[in-house]
Amino acid sequence: MGKEWDPIQLTLPAPNPRNMKRLTVLCFCLTLLLPGLLPAQGTLADYRRADTLQQHFEGKALNIIDELEWIGDSHRFWYRRSVEGGHEFLTVNAAQQSRARSFDHQRLAEVLSSRLGESYGPLTLPFEEIDYGEDGASIEFETGDSLYTCSLDDYACTAEEPPLPWWQQDDEDDEDEETVTSPDGEWVAFVHNYNVAIRPAEGGERVMLSSDGSEGNYYEVDSFAWSPDSEKLAAYRVVPGFNRTIHYLQSSPPDRLQPRHWTDQYTKPGDVLETESPVLFHVDDREQIFIDNSLFPNAYSQGDLYWWSDSRAFRFEYNERGHQNYKVIEVDAETGKPRALIHEKGNPFFSYYTTLWRHYDDNGEEIVWASERDNWRHLYLYDGRTGQVKNQITSGDWVVREVDSVDTEKRQIWFRASGMDDGRDPYYLHAYRINFDGSGLTRLTEADGTHTVDYSSDMRYYVDRWSRVDQAPVAVLRRTSDQGVVMELEKGDLGPLHEAGWQAPEPFVAKGRDGETDIWGLIVRPTDFDPSQNYPVIEYIYAGPHDSFVPKSFDAHSHMMSLAELGFVVVQIDGMGTDNRSKEFHSVAWKNLKDAGFPDRILWHKAAAVEYDWYDISKVGIYGTSAGGQSSMGALLFHPDFYKVAVSASGCHDNRMDKISWNEQWMGWPVGPHYASSSNVDNAHRLQGDLMLIVGNQDTNVPPASTYQVADALIQAGKDFEFFPIPNGGHTSGGDLGQRMRYDYFVEHILDVEPPHWNSMNGPDSR
Questions:
Q1: What Rg value do the Cα atoms of the chain yield, rounded?
Q2: Helix, strand or coil for residue 339?
């Protein structure tokens, strides 16, 4: 709102005509001067800066690598970097420590300009990635609707339609019979009349292995798994669950006048799920063995069936409904007797979203398994024969985030982790290597930032790219043997970006609700930031327990930066209940999604207000989409003493209405009163402050009924709010129009400034 001005004190002399004339002149002068002295916010000029900020910053961060790929099994890789005027491609030979342009950019630009009828320069080529041909004498790239192959000798280019993404490819004609061939090629297995059947691969009579299948209790060919010795077959028999149908009415289809009705299949918390019962078949004697399910009686999910390489047994993974028990089940190939090799107990839940990671060797002699059993996500080595833990591989008050490679010959694991460094942001990613027995922990990255690592196929070299939100990216080629520097590749240049007014986001840390735990977030300022003024605060929230969300790496622009241009500071925070810290930190979310880390967030805001005079928390706004839509509205329901204005988009306002996978993972099963206590619908009567709801009418991620039900509850409670439905909109924050509505809502309700009247202006360019 700008600097708070003291009321002007005027000592007036006794009234007489001369003094009254002087007072009139003084008042007139003040009316002219004060608008120039008081800081204006939410003006049309602010809107224009906000709308053009991304374009204004584009291309001003130089020497930044945005694409990189090793070339096959070689020690060569290419990368694409930003340069003044566009981008260029460079190819590096790690063994020779050489670097050169990947191709003649000018020559290729001329060829493509002529061929495509567009004007391209050497630094504005119409593609971002390349693939080298097997002989290295050509490159491939996609542009438009075509896949181009261009010779690096004469720059002759041929074009063809690119292959469809794998998820759009049809594996087989639907009319063809789906079969699974045995490893020895002797048999094919298939489903006939809902049952398991086999026949000789070269042709012959059908042999039925089962007869208990039916429409409501059928065998599924996609589950068939032959033993490596081709003597046995494992399969799932499936009993369908409740087939919930969501109905949609597309009011404004683009291809016709009349509305369109369509449906989608969508499973919600509490729904009856299909059951999969593993069955074992001995092919030679046609024996069918039913597996006792007492170890896996109530599955949320059961994984695919896999055989050990010696055919002694097959395995599958069992995730019990409620996500509090997770098991690796092994079934003996001769007797069909199951046993639990690994039993992970939730305490209070097992996060298959993030914690689940495993590596099996071919014969199941050893299993590397991820677990949070000691309060931190770490790796454990299991004896696959006995099911006993051999040793804990990683340990400490830090988190294994991802495994990049497992080398069973050298008995080494290459992984990324965060939180190992005292005094540093615990979310920064670093790369490490460790031996199976927990010895030899080797750090592969050092710099104080978050790192991305790209390894050569033989792991001899790696490119270490690191940055922070306030630090330009740096890229270095290193050897894995001693982490020595082979080549300095790129060091980002932010000079032109700073000259354009760019303000680096500021990481900020404060204590959480327990007075001990560090809560990390960042602060985004407008380009015309003046520390002598006051700035109202708006928080962008996404508090999903499946990850952490505050950016840790450099980005020249974000939607928070654009919003800040209107006269705000915009912040983002990872409170308790989000992931990538300790299990204790994470478990705050369990059966309590309404918490959303708000006790930590509010303390963080208050600490920032103590630290900075310009940080104004007298009227805090908040916005978010999806789970952030639930939380942003929840801020006004459960913490109205602090949050005053919210814009909620595509919110899962009641976890009973949203998808089963995400919601039962964090809210548990069975559905109970705790679902209602976190529901924005059931708590709509609590609303205080100013609320805008945005929803896309064709949202297949979170059905739009979730938002309509919370709107209905608000109406029933006599509450005022604004409702913004988007015809044809999917799971969205509203697109360009939604952004404008969000801007206007915060300008009006936080800055107390009337937004521009867009309908009276001369089109969108007037902004």
A1: 31
A2: strand
Residue of 434, 462, 436, 466 lying closest to 452 (CA atoms): 466
Q: What phi-psi label fits residue 483: left (phi over 0), alpha (psi between -120 and 50 degrees) or beta?
A: left
pLDDT confidence of 462, banded at 50, 70, 90?
A: very high
- Which residue type, as a one-letter code, is found at position 669? W
Residues 6+ apart with CB under 8 A from 21: none
DSSP assignment of 647-708, as one string?
EEES---STTTS-HHHHHHHH-SS--HHHHHT-TTTTGGG--SEEEEEEETT-SSS-THHHH
pLDDT score, position 17: 44
One-letter amino acid for residue 327 of the chain: K
Closest by CA to 283, choosing from 386, 189, 414, is 189
Q: What pLDDT was estimated at residue 41?
A: 86
pLDDT digits (tens, 9 = 90+) for 204-244: 999 999 999 999 999 999 999 999 999 999 999 999 999 99
The predicted pLDDT at position 35 comes to: 38
- Which of the 8 DSSP states describes residue 162? P
Kindly state the tokens that stand for 472. 């330009």
The DSSP element (H or E) to which 540 belongs, if any, is strand 535-540
Taking 70 as the threshold, does the pLDDT of residue 402 lie above it? yes
Mean pLDDT of the chain: 93
DSSP structural state of residue 579: S
Backbone φ and ψ for 107, nearest 5 degrees, come out as -65, -45
Distance from C-alpha of 112 to C-alpha of 150, rounded to nearest angstrom: 10
Q: Can you give the pLDDT at residue 513?
A: 98
Cβ neighbours, 10 Å, residue 697? 18
Look at residue 738 and give its three-state secondary structure: helix
Q: List all residues 6 or more positions away from 585 whose beta carbon is below 8 Å from its beta carbon.
A: 517, 576, 577, 578
Do 172 and 178 contact (CB within 8 A), yes or no? yes
pLDDT tens digits, 642-656? 999 999 999 999 999
Largest CA distance in the chain: 121
Q: What is the mean pLDDT of residues 102-114?
A: 97
SS3 80: strand
User: Is residue 489 within 8 Å of 79, Cβ to Cβ?
Assistant: yes
E-strand spans in 112-210?
A: 131-132, 138-143, 146-151, 157-160, 180-181, 187-192, 195-200, 207-208
Give, in degrees to the nearest 5, the angle at Cα 186 between 180 and 189: 25
Here the tokens at position 78 are 């290419």
For range 262-274, the mean pLDDT: 98
User: Residue 593: helix, strand or coil by DSSP?
Assistant: coil
| 543 vs 578: CA distance, rounded Å | 6
Task: DSSP for 12-54, please give it.
Answer: PPSP-HHHHHHHHHHHHHHHHHHHHHSPP-S-HHHHHHHHHHH
Burial of 230 (0-12, 13-18, 19+ CB in 10 A): middle
Average pLDDT over residues 157-170: 77
Q: In what order do the strands lie in the sheet with 98-101?
A: 65-70, 76-83, 86-93, 98-101
Q: How many CB atoms lie within 10 A of CB 589?
A: 27
pLDDT classification of 77: cutoffs 50, 70, 90: very high
- Helix axes 598-611 and 627-638, enclosed angle (nearest 10): 70
Q: How many C-beta atoms lie closer than 10 Å to residue 21's C-beta?
A: 10
In the predicted structure, residue 179 carries a pLDDT above the cut 70: yes
In which residue are the tokens 């800081």 written? 39
Token pair recorded at residue 579:
């992931």
CA distance 528 to 568: 11
